[in-house]
Amino acid sequence: MTRAVAAGQLRGMTAADRGRLEEITRAVGLFRDDEVPVALEVFDAAVAGSPDYTALGVEVDGRLAGWICWGPTPCTLATWDLYWMAVDPALHGHGLGTLLVDEMERRLAGVARLVVVETAGRADYAPTRAFYEARGYRAVGLIPDFYAPGDDQVTFVKYFEAPATH
To answer: Which of 17, 65, 70, 156 is least enclosed by beta carbons within 10 angstroms?
Structure first.
């Protein structure tokens, strides 16, 4: 089944997006209250120019509708982590998450050999896990009770053509 992409426009993010980003991240309803400040910390570092994080937003009708943040994994060769992604729940299923992941992958082409996504194993995360699987990520690991009792960590990976080395 193919779903039409909402008229999403990709763009860089600025500190002015912080409030809306927090609103979207909370509205998703999956992240615990103590996780949201971590997302904001990563976002703040990205917009401040940290080489450790890249943040990208998607707008619909001139309003931020979702965001993604990724960065190089320390102490690895061409491995990258997808740290955060959230799309306004009112726009779930319209292709905005796919647009964000596709753009991240496009920007990492020739740079990354591996992208890692860590997400929760709770039942309410089943759509999230299905989202990554549908985009070619495969589950390679599970740590029981990682986030909390009954909340496993599921690790997904996607391999890419190895970047050229000199």
So the answer is: 17
CA distance 116 to 10: 22
CATH number of the CATH domain containing 149: 3.40.630.30
Q: Number of folded domains in the chain?
A: 1
pLDDT in tens, 23-80: 999 999 999 999 999 999 999 999 999 999 999 999 999 999 999 999 999 999 999 9
78 by Cβ neighbours in 10 Å (0-12 / 13-18 / 19+) ranks as middle
Q: Which helix (H) or strand (E) holds 83?
A: strand 79-87
- Does residue 1 form part of some domain? no
Give dist(CA 26, CA 33) in Å, integer. Answer: 8
Tokens 């426009």 appear where?
9
